[in-house]
Amino acid sequence: MHTHTQLIYLDTNSPLICATRILDAGQDNVGHYLILDKTVAHVRGGGQLGDRGRIGDATLLDVRRANDEVRHYVEGVSPVVGANVAVKVDPEFRRRSSRWHTAGHLLAAALEHEIPGFAASAAQQWPTDAWVTGLWAVPIAEDLTQRLQRFIDDARAADLPVVVKLGDVRTVQIQGHRPVPCGGTHVASIGAIGPLHVEDVRIKKGVLKARYTCDDEKKDIVFFIGLPSC
Ligand SMILES: [Zn+2]
User: What distance in angstroms lies between residue 143's CA and the mean position of ligand 1's atoms?
Assistant: First the structure.
C-alpha cells in the first residue's frame, strides 16, 4: 500500500482546509488513525505538537509520524478507507501553536546573540513545557535572563519578519539572524508572538536549558480559512 502523505502545510501559503482521501486506517498504542493522501495539518515534530481539527465528521486529535507514515489520530465517526473528505485545522489551535513555536526560535536567537559560541540544538514548544537547549558548560552571566528578555522585547517591538524558504531543506529565519532548518508553523512576524517571558536559564551536565512561556489571550488575530485549493 502506498501510504505517502503530501504535506501541504509546509508551504506557508497553505490554507487550513483541504480535500483529501483516506488511504488507510489502523490502530496503534496512541489510538485510531487515518492515513491521508494529503494534509494541511502539521505533523508533530521539531518540538511542535501535531495540529488538531476535523477530518470529515471525526475530531482530529493529533498527527504523528510512525513507521514511515503520517498518522492522523481521530475520535468519533471515522471516515472509511477510500472516502473523500475535508481535513480542517482548528485555526485557534494553529495560531497558538505557531506563536509558541516561533517564540522558541526567538529565544534560540536571543541565546545565540547573548552567549557567543552557543548554538541551540533542540527545543520544545508545548504551552505546558517550553524550552530551548544546547551544549554549554561555561558559567553564564548573572544577568543573562534579563539580557535575553531585553533582546526578545526589542525584537517584538521591531516586529521582525519571519521568513520561511522552501527547498531541499526548508528553513526559517528571523530577520537579522541565522536561518535554521525547520518543518514547523510560524507567525509572519515576531510581534504576533505576543508577550514572551524567559522563565529561567540553567546549566546541568553540560547542557544549557532556557525555559519560557507566552501569554495566551483570546483576542488573537482572526485567522482566514482559505478555500480548498489543494
Ligand atoms: Zn520553526
Answer: 27
- CATH placement of domain 94-214: 3.30.980.10
What is the dotted CATH code of the domain comprising 6-89? Answer: 2.40.30.130
Residue 79 Cα to ligand 1 middle (Å): 31
Measured at the CA of 140, the angle between CA 208 and CA 127, to 5 degrees, comes to 40
pLDDT digits (tens, 9 = 90+) for 146-200: 999 999 999 999 999 999 999 899 999 999 999 999 999 999 999 999 999 999 9
What's the CA-to-centroid distance between 185 and ligand 1, angstroms? Answer: 6
Bridge partners (DSSP) listed for residue 129: 126
E strand or H helix at 95, and its extent? helix 91-114
Report how far ligand 1's centroid is from the alpha carbon of 180 (Å). Answer: 8
CA 184 to ligand 1 center in whole angstroms: 4
The model's pLDDT over 28-47, given as tens digits with 9 standing for 90+, comes to 999 999 999 999 999 999 99
Domain boundaries, the chain: 6-89, 94-214
